[in-house]
């Protein structure tokens, strides 16, 4: 087996891109097989899930997990990037009460459609939106469905709003902040953001990218998925990626042999269970 396998929970500092973190991990562990789940903007800090070796093949199963953030929004100013890294393009007087801010945030709880911001890595026509924006070209990505489970105000000093939000993967918190500013009539932009959780994974369990990097076992990368224990015959079949009988579990599920070894990810399709990822063979 080439190189280490496993999961890293990284506490990303501000100023680093998610790709910067991947590069640091590659150098520290001496392997190119490193990837991350759930990009964080350079300004943001907090939990970044990093897969090493075979765990990179499991990163796509983190996409549907809810993300939790703590952040601060500044009312009265809009920026071109919707956050503090951009240029102020409009300023307005702030005349709102705490109750109005609470109501504006609560209005975004639930399902909706959100358009990715102009300064983002989303691609349209093969080019990233931020490349088009920096070139002075206005290109819009189609809106996509998001879900906000929680959007609460934790502090308000008349201008800056502390908040806690739990939302679906792919949600741009800076767009939520800008939308709140629009609803309040004074504009707003994001000035601080920290991701504290991705599903059951927590930032307090994370390490700095320049700390001691000891990948968690491969099984940690599927801790959020249903677990199915296979008998000896089925385990042998699964180790070679063969079709199994249905497990009765909805969605993707992790399959293990009788000794507790992770074999892969399967999904029921009618009367069969088909492999999505095979990790042994």
Q: How does this structure look, described?
A:
- This protein is α+β, with helices and mostly antiparallel strands and 281 residues long.
- It folds into 3 domains: 1-62, Pseudouridine synthase I, catalytic domain, N-terminal subdomain (Alpha-Beta Plaits), CATH 3.30.70; 67-198, Pseudouridine synthase (2-Layer Sandwich), CATH 3.30.2350.10; 225-278, PUA domain (Archaeosine Trna-guanine Transglycosylase, Chain: A, domain 4).
- Helices cover 17% and strands 36% of the residues.
- The protein contains 5 helices and 17 strands.
- Strands 1, 2, 3, 4, 7, 10, 11, 12 and 13 form a 9-stranded mixed sheet that branches. Strands 14-15-16-17 form a 4-stranded mixed sheet. It has a two-stranded antiparallel sheet with strand order 5-6.
- The radius of gyration is 21 Å and the shape is elongated.
- The chain starts with 5 loop residues before the first strand and ends with a strand.
- The model has no long low-confidence stretch (mean pLDDT 93).
């Amino acid at each position: 087996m080439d190189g280490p396998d496993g999961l890293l929970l990284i506490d990303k500092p501000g100023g680093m891109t998610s790709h910067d973190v991947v590069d640091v991990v590659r150098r520290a562990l001496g392997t190119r097989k490193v990837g991350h789940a759930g990009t964080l903007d350079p300004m943001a800090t907090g939990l970044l899930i990093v897969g090493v070796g075979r765990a990179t093949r499991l990163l796509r199963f983190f996409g549907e997990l809810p993300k939790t953030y703590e952040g601060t929004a500044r009312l009265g100013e809009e920026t071109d990037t919707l956050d503090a890294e951009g240029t102020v393009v409009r300023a307005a007087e702030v005349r709102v009460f705490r109750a109005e801010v609470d109501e504006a945030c609560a209005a975004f709880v639930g399902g909706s459609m959100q358009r990715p911001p102009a300064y983002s890595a989303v691609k349209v026509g093969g080019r990233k939106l931020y490349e088009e924006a920096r070139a002075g070209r206005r290109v819009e990505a189609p809106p996509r469905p998001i879900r906000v489970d929680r959007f609460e105000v934790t502090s308000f000093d008349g201008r800056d709003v502390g908040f806690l939000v739990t939302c679906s993967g792919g949600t741009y918190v800076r767009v939520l902040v800008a939308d709140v500013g629009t609803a309040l009539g004074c504009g707003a932009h994001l000035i601080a953001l920290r991701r504290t959780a991705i599903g059951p994974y927590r930032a307090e369990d994370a390490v700095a990218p320049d700390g001691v990097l000891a990948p968690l076992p491969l099984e940690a990368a599927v801790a959020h998925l249903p677990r199915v224990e296979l008998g000896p015959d089925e385990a042998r079949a699964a180790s070679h990626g063969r079709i199994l009988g249905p497990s009765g579990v909805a969605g993707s599920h992790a399959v293990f042999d009788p000794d507790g070894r992770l074999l892969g990810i399967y999904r029921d399709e009618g009367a069969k269970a088909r492999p999505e990822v095979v990790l042994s063979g």
